[in-house]
Amino acid sequence: MTDPSSKKTAVIYARYSSDMQRVSSIDGQLLLCRKVALRNNLDVVGEFVDAAKSGLTEGARDGYQRLLNGVRSRQFDVVVVEHFDRLSRDPATIQRLKQVFEFNGVELMDQKGVYATATDISIASLYNTIYKPQLAEKVRRGHDNAVANGRIPGSYAYGYRPRPGAPGERVIDENEAKIVLRIFKEYAAGRSTRTIAADLTREGVPSPGATRHKNKAGRTTWNHQCITGGRHGRGIIGNELYIGEIHWNVRSTILNPETQKKQKRCNPAERHIIVKKPELRIVPQGLWDLAQKVRRVRAVSMFGPTGQPRRRAVSPRNHEHPLAGVLRCGVCNGHMRIAQSSRNGAPRAACASAHQRGTCEHTRSFDMDVLLEDASEKIR
Fold first, then answer.
1. pLDDT tens-digit profile of 220-231?
2. From CA 339, how far away is CA 358, in angstroms rounded?
3. CA-CA-CA-CA torsion sign (248, 196, 359, 208)
4. Mean pLDDT over residues 323-335, rounded?
5. In 149-228, which residue ranges form alpha helices assigned H by DSSP?
6. What CATH superfamily classification does 149-303 receive?
């Protein structure tokens, strides 16, 4: 009989994706992994869970991050999972994760009850490489079918609430709808998005972030970008749902392999899905048309005949500007951000609070290359 004191300690990791599974999947995974641990004489000392989180992300999974911290501090001997893809669906990530486990003397076990080897991980990585595009296509097909039937996958827009007991269906939130109408009227009357956002912040009007992320700091402040939506012109002013139309598959998200940042690209018009939902209209057609005209005129005035800003090529992270992330505002001590470009294409930094939220009076911007040259000279 095995000496109980010789038992290895173990933790369980469980995850389900919001795209394909339900909350009950977590309970099933935990039950299975507990049985695996019992059969292998493992003492379960903890469980880490991520609900409705994609296996392609790392930073957004709190349970996963706590698991990694435990591995690095060697708080347990074994990690038990239902399948290796519960940890990650990215082949490179799962390979790197196995190396982290080995470096810290932590073993990995799946539902077969066998400790994973480098060969097991390589086979799992190959499978994920094949399976990921198939899964993406299935999810895309499911979303397209939902939209065709008048449902909206994913999060809900400002001005709406999910209909209880009806996944994907929306109802108008009357209080937020009044704010949406106010924004459209003021924008159509010629007010700037920064002024509108600053007024809403000053009046304490709950922002889109405040209503959906109540526990996150800074979410009660309005950002002018949520009104016009930046490069793709979405935001509140560009959201066709406010005139009772669902526009789906207009853009696709793709990962830049050099910067590891996600970028949006416009899809051809033949791939767009447009569904009429007149019961969701908040903005009258005349007001919508006037707001779109104002936006077009402003775009041409700022960026020329195309109405599109000229952007420099995105540089990989290892070529990031030396001053990125270290500049602070001299008035509010808040972070500086890239707000504009100089005539030579160099980035210009401005106070984020002043540029995005209108809560700081320091509106001046600075050429980052000039700042770097000045700092370098003083260092010398």
1. 689 888 898 755
2. 13
3. negative
4. 85
5. 174-188, 193-202, 208-212, 225-228
6. Putative Large Serine Recombinase; Chain B, Domain 2 (3.90.1750.20)
